[in-house]
């Protein structure tokens, strides 16, 4: 059963499409991911599905309700964790949740039990009376997830939920996301530009310049890339590239200062390569295809933010927040 159905959804800003007539479905209980770089249309898509933004054309149903004709029912069906912080840090954790409960009409006699349930799920029950301003970035994200779950939504939207967090906190946050699926059978729709997060999704849609350019399970997408990935470095890369192309008929990518080829059975190909090549090789790397390879194969480039350092990611996040 599909809980989200999207048909030719389009959003145009100043004659430029941010989302370009995309269509896809999300099954009940699925973790569905939008993978793409900044500006690809990920957040715009979530904001349209959450009825924050109206589409220019097309339609979608969320939990069976039209995002155009029945916005209130859509909003009651979803929880939403925004990309940017949205908690009131002058309030305590419980006060933030109480305010959310009033907005969503959670009965007063049920609030305490639900608050305890969602805060225990994210290991924050013992901090319920603490001011949010005393929380770390990871704790705030966990509280935002708890807030999004308070009214028992059918679908939880997570827009870049771990951006700006350190790797350890990101890993812990993903433990809670996977726990939600396991224990609550909740449908989770998330956006990310992190490859490891996309790997944890049941299916992913790769979105680029507003278009969905691929959609399948992570494993199926990686199989479509081809064989094993071999990266070679040497003193005379141009000579090495020519020999690889002429001798073996291989397509060689040299966009990042090394040579990258795709072959079947890389473990058996490498010994043959070393025995037959006339050009010296200083280093070699053999690995299986990744989602980064899928994105590179489809779009011709890497996801820029994926190669940023942690410091650069934080600076980029702060820069983007400053524009809002």
From TrEMBL:
Task: Identify one Gene Ontology CC term for this UniProt entry.
Answer: plasma membrane
Q: Where is the ABC transporter domain?
A: 4-234
Gene3D superfamilies xref list: P-loop containing nucleotide triphosphate hydrolases (3.40.50.300)
Q: Which GO terms describe its biological process?
A: daunorubicin transport; doxorubicin transport
Instruction: Please provide the record's keywords in A-Z order.
Output: ATP-binding, Nucleotide-binding, Transport
Q: What membrane topology does the annotation report for this chain? A: Peripheral membrane protein
The record's principal subcellular location, in a coarse class, is: membrane
Instruction: Mention any Pfam family matching this sequence.
Output: DrrA1-3_C
GO MF annotations in UniProt: ATP binding; ATP hydrolysis activity
Is the keyword ATP-binding assigned to this protein?
A: yes
Q: From what superkingdom does this record's organism come? A: Bacteria
Localisation: Cell membrane
Family classification: Belongs to the ABC transporter superfamily. Drug exporter-1 (DrugE1) (TC 3.A.1.105) family.
Q: Which PANTHER family match?
A: LINEARMYCIN RESISTANCE ATP-BINDING PROTEIN LNRL
**Protein name, UniProt field:** ABC transporter ATP-binding protein
Q: Which organism is it from?
A: Candidatus Uhrbacteria bacterium RIFOXYC2_FULL_47_19
């Amino acid at each position: 059963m599909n809980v989200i159905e999207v048909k030719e959804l389009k959003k145009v800003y100043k004659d430029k499409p941010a989302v370009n007539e995309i269509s896809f479905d999300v099954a009940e209980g699925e973790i569905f991911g939008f993978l793409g770089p900044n500006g690809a249309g990920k957040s715009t898509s979530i904001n349209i599905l959450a009825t924050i933004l109206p589409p220019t054309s097309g339609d979608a149903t969320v939990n069976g309700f039209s995002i155009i004709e029945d916005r209130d029912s859509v909003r009651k069906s979803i929880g939403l964790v925004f990309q940017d912080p949205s908690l009131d840090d002058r309030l305590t954790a419980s006060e933030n949740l109480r305010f959310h409960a009033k907005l969503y009409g959670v009965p007063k006699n049920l609030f305490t039990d639900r608050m305890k349930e969602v805060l225990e799920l994210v290991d924050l029950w013992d901090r319920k009376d603490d001011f949010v301003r005393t929380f770390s970035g990871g704790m705030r994200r966990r509280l935002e997830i708890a807030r999004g779950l308070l009214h028992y939504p059918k679908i939880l939207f997570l827009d870049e939920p771990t951006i700006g967090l350190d790797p350890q906190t990101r890993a812990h946050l993903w433990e809670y996301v996977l726990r939600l699926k396991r224990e609550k059978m909740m449908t989770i729709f998330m956006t990310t530009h992190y490859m490891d997060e996309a790997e944890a999704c049941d299916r992913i849609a790769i979105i680029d310049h507003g278009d969905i350019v691929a959609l399948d399970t992570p494993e199926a997408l990686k199989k479509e890339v081809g064989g094993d990935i071999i990266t070679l470095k040497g003193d005379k890369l141009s000579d090495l590239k020519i020999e690889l192309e002429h001798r073996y008929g291989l397509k060689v990518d040299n966009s990042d200062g090394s040579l990258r080829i795709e072959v079947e059975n890389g473990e058996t190909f490498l010994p043959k390569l070393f025995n037959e090549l006339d050009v010296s090789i200083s280093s070699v790397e053999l690995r299986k295809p990744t989602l980064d390879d899928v994105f590179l194969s489809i779009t011709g480039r890497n996801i820029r933010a994926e190669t940023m350092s942690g410091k650069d990611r934080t600076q980029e996040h702060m820069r983007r927040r400053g524009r809002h």
